[in-house]
Batch of 2 targets.
Target 1
Amino acid sequence: MTNLLKLQDAAMIDISLNNESKQIAAHILLSDALVQWGFGETKIAVAINGEFVPRSTYGEREILAGDQLDIVKPVGGG
Amino acid sequence: MSYTPTLPAKDFILYGETFSSRFLLGTALYASPRLMRDSITQSRAEIVTLGLRRQNPADRSGDAIWQFIQESGRRLLPNTAGCKSVKEAVTLAEMSREIFDTDWIKLEVVGDDYNLQPDPFGLVEASDILIKKGFKVLPYCTDDLILCKRLVDVGCEVLMPWGAPIGTGQGLLNRYNLRTLRERIKDIPMIIDAGLGAPSQAAEAMEMGFDGILLNTAVAKAHNPPLMAEAFADAVDAGRKAYKAGLMQKRQTASPSTPTIGQPFWHQ
C-alpha cells in the first residue's frame, strides 16, 4: 500500500497556476492542461516562469514540476 | 475667406497612422460594461486602452467588457500596467501582442507604489528591447526632458508624459517641465497620459501644443461617464483649435477692448 501511494505521488507534480498551488499529472502537455482547466475556448495568453509561451508551442511544452504558470485574459485597463 | 494658422497644424499621426480624434480613452473602473461602451461612443475616441490579468476560467465577469470593446471597433492599445520590472513588462507585452493581435503597446514600468511613477531606467531599457522585437511602443513616462529624449533615441515615435500621477485628477502639475518638453521635442507626437481630472485641464494641455490626451479615471468615475467623455472630447477639440489659432500674449496692464476714440462724456 505504501509503495502504491509512493507510485501515485511520483505520478503527480506540484506547480503554481496563477499564484495558486496545484497538483497535476506528470508528463502533461500545456495544450492538454489548458483544456482540462477549462481554458480551451477562452482567449488567453500564457507565460511559464515569467517567459512568454507562444500559442503555437502549447502542444510541445510539457509542464514540469515547479513550473509557475500565468494565464491571462483581457480586462478593462487605463 | 481663409486665415493662415500662426502655428503649424500637424495631423495626428501615430506610427504612420493618421487619427482624427486626439482623445484616447481607458476602459477600466466603469460601474458597468454598458457605461464603458456608451462612454467610448460619446468620447469619439478611435483608440482605447485595455489590459491583461490573471483570471480563473470559471470567472466570466470580464467577458462583457471584452465583448463591448471588440464591438466598438476601436484600435486597441494594450498596456503593461502594474509591471515593476523590465522582464515583466516585456513578457506582458508579448502576451498582449498575441492575444490582441497588435504590436502597439502602452508601456508602463512602475517605479514606485505610492505614486505609480514610471521607472525611467526600466522604461528606456524595456522600450529598447520591445522596439527591437518589432513593437510600436507608446511609453507612459514622466515629464522629464532627458528621459523623453532617451526614449526617442531608442526608437519611440510617440511619448506619453504624465500630467499627474495616475488616478489623482490633479491636472498639469508641472507646467514648466511640460512646456520645456514641447519646446525641445517638436517633432514627436506627445500625448498627456494620466492625472487629468477636468476637461479644462485637457484643453489647457492641448492649448500648450500637446498632440493628444489619454485618460480613464476622470471619465469612469464621473457621475455620468458618457457625458463626461463627451465633455473631454469637446475640450480636446477646443484646446486643439486654440493652439492652431494661436493664443494671445499675456500682458501685465489692462488694455481696453472697446475703442477709446469717441468716448462720450470726456472733456479736456
Note: The CA atoms of residues 7 and 28 of chain A lie 17 Å apart.
Target 2
Amino acid sequence: MLSENWAQQIVNVATIGGMYTLVAVGFTIFFGVLGLINFAHGEVFMLGAFAALVVARTLDFTSTAGGVAMIAAMFVFATLFCGVVGAAIERVAFKPVRRAPMLVMLITSLGVSFILREAVREFFPDGANPLAFPSPFQSAEIRLRGVVISDTQILLIAASVLIVIGLYYLVERTWIGRSMRAIAEDRDAARMMGVDVDRVILAAFFIGSALGGVAGVMNGLYYLSIRFDMGWVMAIKGFTAAVIGGLGNIYGAAAGGYLLALLEVLIVALVPEGSEYKDVLVFLVLILMLVFRPSGIFRQAPQKVG
Amino acid sequence: MRHSKSFAFVAAAALSLCVTTQARSAEYSLAVNLPLTGPWANYGQGMYNSFKLAIDQANASGKLGKIKLEVIAGDNAGNTAQAVNLTTQAGSDPSVLGAFCCWASEIGIATHGIYQRYGLPVILGGSNDHRSSRPFHQDAVVFRNSPYDLINMKFAAIYAADVAKFKRIYLIDDNSAFGRTQVDEFRKFAEEKTGSGIILGRESIAQGEKDFTPLLTRLEGLDPDMIYFGGRIIEASLMRQQMVRLGLNVPLMTSGGTFSDTYIKITGDAANGTLASFWGLPMADYPHGRGLVFEQAYAAAKFNNPYEAFGPMAYATGEVYVQAIEAAAKAGPVTRAAVLEELNTREFNTLIGDFHFDKNGMPSVIHIAIYVVRDGKWQILYQTDPDATKLVKVAQ
C-alpha cells in the first residue's frame, strides 16, 4: 500500500513534470526547425506570466464565472502576445544570423534573453519586485486522506498532456507540421519543393513562444508569484528536459520533463540533505546524456519535429 | 591659416578639458555598490533611493556649503564579479570619498579587502554575514549600518528556544553565504540553549528554485514544530505557500532576507504566522519621529520603488556621510582619510538613532526585533532592550 507521503510525492512529480514539459516543448520546436537552442524562450515564458498579470489587473472579476472568464482571457492574451513576441524575435534577432555558425545564434538568444528580462524589470510598474499573481483557483483543493491536489495542479497536468497531443496532431496531420518536418530534414530541399521556409519558421516561433506563454500563465497560477528573472531557471530545466527526451522530439520533451521531475523528487525524498545536491545530480544526468546519448532517451524518435 | 585653425581647435579642446577637470575636481561623490538590477533589485533600489534622498536633502539644504555631493549609482546586479569591478572603479576615482555597499553577504565578503586597498571608507548595508566585518578581518575602512548575523541569530535563537519554546526545528538554507551562515549561527545558538535534540535536520535549496513540495512532503513525516529558513524573499514566499497548501501548518521563521512588505504581498494569506528576526523597528518606533519624517519625504520624492526593509538604514547611511563630510570640511581638506577619521570618532544623529561606530565599525545602537505576520502585516512581538542583552515583549 502506497503511503500518503509517497502518494503526495507522485502528485508532486506530475505537477513539476507538467511544468517542465510545457517549457521543454518550446525548446524542442525551435531546435526542430532551426537547430537552435533558444535560451530566450525562458524570458518569453516570463513575458507570458506578466501579460496574464496585466489582463488580471485590467479585468477584475470577482464572481466564479467571472474568474473562469478572467483565466480564459489571461490564457488567450498571453498566448497571442508571446506568439507575436516570439515571431518578432525570430524576424529581428534570429533571421539575420540564420546562416551564421550556431554559436552566433546561441549568443543572440542569450542577448535577447537579457534584453527582455531587464526591459521588464525597468519598464513594468514595480517590475524589480516579485509580484503577486491573482488566481481564483487558489482556495480550491482536493484532499484525499493526507494527499492534497489543487485544481490548478490538475489544470497544469491536463494542459501539458493536451499540448503534447495537440502538437503531435499539428506536426503529423497538418500542412504546417509537414512543412516544419521538411525544413528540419533539409531546408534547401524543402524550399525547392515549394515550402515557404521563412513563413514556416515564423509560424514555428509563433507556436513555440505561444506555448511558452501558456507555461508562464500556468506558472503564475500555480506558484502565485512572478518575477522578472523567473525565466532563466525554468529555461535551464526545460532545456534539460528536452535534452533528456531528445531535442526535436515532442514526446521526448514530455518524457524528459516527467523524468527530470521524478529524478528531482526521488533525490529529495530519499537522500538525506538531498536538496543540496539535487541540481548537481540533475546536471550530471544532463552531461551524461549529452556525452553518451546526445539524441536523448528516444534514439529512434517516434515523432520528430526535426 | 589651416595650421592656425587646427591650433585654435586643439587649444580650445585642451582648455575645455581643463575646465571640465577643474569642475569635476571641485565636486565630491559617494559610490553606491548595490543590486539595482537582478534578483535583489527590490532591496537595492529601495536602498539606493533612500541613500540618495539623504544626500539630495543635504545638497538642497546648503549645510555642506560649497560642497555638492554626487551619488554614483553602481549596479552590482547581485553579481560578485560586477561588484568587485565597481569597487575598483570607485577606489580609483579620486572624487569618491566613501562607498555604500552591498546588500548581499557574499559581495560584502568579496569586496571589503578592495575598499581597504584603496583606503576608501565603506558602510555596509545588509551584508549580514559577520565575515565581511571587523574583527573577522583587519580592514579598518569597513563600517556597518546594522548588526551582523552573530547578534541577529543569537536573538532569533533565544526567541525560538527560550521564548516560543520550539522543540523540533528543521533548518533550511538557500545555499548562499548569507543563508548558510544564518542557519549555522542559528543552530549554534539554539543548541547552546537547549542541546542538539532541538534540531531535526537541515537541507539546502537552490536560489531560483520554485517547487519545494517534495522537500516539504518529506518534512511532514518528521513532524517539525517550526521551520527556520535562512534565505531570501521569493524562495521564502513559495515555501510558505506550499507549506500551507500541503497542510504543514507550523511557523516559518526567517530574517532580514525576507522581512519585507513585498513578502506579504506575494505570499497572500499564507504569510500569516511567518516569523522574522530583523535589525530594524517599525517606522513609528524610531526615535524622535524621524522614521515617519523619512517616510513622508520618501513618498514626496515619488520614487518608482518602495524603500523596502533596508531603506531606513540606507537613509541613515546617507546622513552619516553628510555629517562626516560636513565635519571634515570644517576641520580642513575633505579627503578620504578625513572622512574616515570622522567616521571613527563622531557621534551621528540619524533616523535609526544617535550612535557612533565602535572599534569594529559596528553601530553602537542595535535594534533587533522579532516580528510575526498577523492580519497581513508584520507586527512586532519582541525587541532588544537598549543594551541589546535580552528580548523584551512589546505591548500590542
Note: The mean pLDDT of chain A is 89.
